[in-house]
Please model this.
Amino acid sequence: MTAVFFNPLQDGYTDDPWSHFAEMREAEPVHALLTGGYALFRYDDVFALLRDPEMSVDDRNANFDDMDRAALVEEFSEFNEFESILGMDPPDHTRLRRLVSKAFTPRTIEALRPRIEEMVDGMLDTMEEAGTADVVGELAFPLPFDVISEMLGLPEADKDQIRDWSGAIVKTLDPIITEDEMREAGEANRNLEGYLETVIDWKRANPADDILTAMIDAEESGDRMTPKELRDQVNLLFVAGHETTVNLIGTGIKELLAHPDQADLWRNDPSLDANAVDEMLRWVSPVQFSRRITLKDTEIDGVTVPAKSFVQTSLASANHDPAKFGPTAEQLDLSRPDAGQHVSFGSGIHYCLGASLAKLEGQVAIGRFLRRFPNAEPSGEPVWNGRINLRGLDRFLVRVQ
Ligand code: HEM
Model:
């Protein structure tokens, strides 16, 4: 038997990671990566690991010695100093998540619906006038960007500049990253931090009814959040708020144009809205990997993973696992009854804080796009963004009339 190894740098991977995942689920579902650490590919293993209270998410608990990628992380150590709740264990995680989550209750999010509908309709108007439009640049990216900017109460900003920075930063979430990419990410991160510090100072002088003001109040009213913790949580909300949802909407629309029967189903049945978004989240998997760090030797599916291992959980592979979703796992089916059991938002204590917001944005943007432009069709080949984890499109031209 030939040894299998997971190589996301292989030609053709971006177009079709799914066949690689299928191979790994069969041949080696608990896989020691050539670059160090492990990756899990089966739903049951991924789900259990994400929810295991004995796992850490704090990089400082990982043994970096045998990891190529981590050596780079060490070299450009600013990322070790970035302390968002995504990389924090209890009790700090519990304390900060409680403060940040106040603004993300399902009720608060649902109240944003009319504003999100208004934003989407404005973007669709512009697309209609042009006749041919880039779905990513004109809808999938600006919608979540404008929504999170408005929720945080950020001033008008140079969107293209920030898009470049955050694009470079999220590259560090890939299982494999080059030294140049890491250096670029470090530079982008310094720029974004500088920008956010200026914005936070400005907000201190100009408080308003927004999340950033609420977070500043929490920081100023005691020692519950330090200025650095505040900046890092704003950074996370800002970047996670748009770099993920862009893929749900962009790749989601591309996939629906490639599955016209499913697009018709959604278009004609508004009662499908909620389930359809869950199925798109499962199908697209806008964040393809999350991760945990073992604190002790841990047996997973018969393999002993040593303490201090960095374990990548392939959310995308779990979402397409026939052992969970049955023989139709590799088909897009908007009426799938258990679509909502996808792990696209992770699971356990780090379950995505923005899940309700992302679903609302996806529902409104994709649903309204399909209904407004029943004859939409691709105009040229989609351009991928070159990311392994936050896999999505940079550009996707569509004729809407
Ligand atoms: C389709 C869009 C999105 C996807 C697929 C997604 C996915 C994820 C995933 C996989 C995690 C890690 C969960 C884990 O490891 O168990 C996460 C965490 C998080 N997400 Fe999202 N996300 C999306 C949108 C958003 C939005 C819109 C926001 C905020 C405005 C957001 C804020 C966060 C935060 C703050 C965390 C950290 C939670 C914690 O560590 O406690 N996300 N997300």
Observations:
- The chain has a mean pLDDT of 91.
- Residues 13 and 19 are 9 Å apart (CA to CA).
- Residues 50, 85-86, 97, 148, 236-237, 240-241, 244-245, 248, 286-287, 290, 315, 344-348, 350-354, 357-358 surround protoporphyrin IX containing FE (CB under 6 Å).
- The chain has one domain: 17-399.
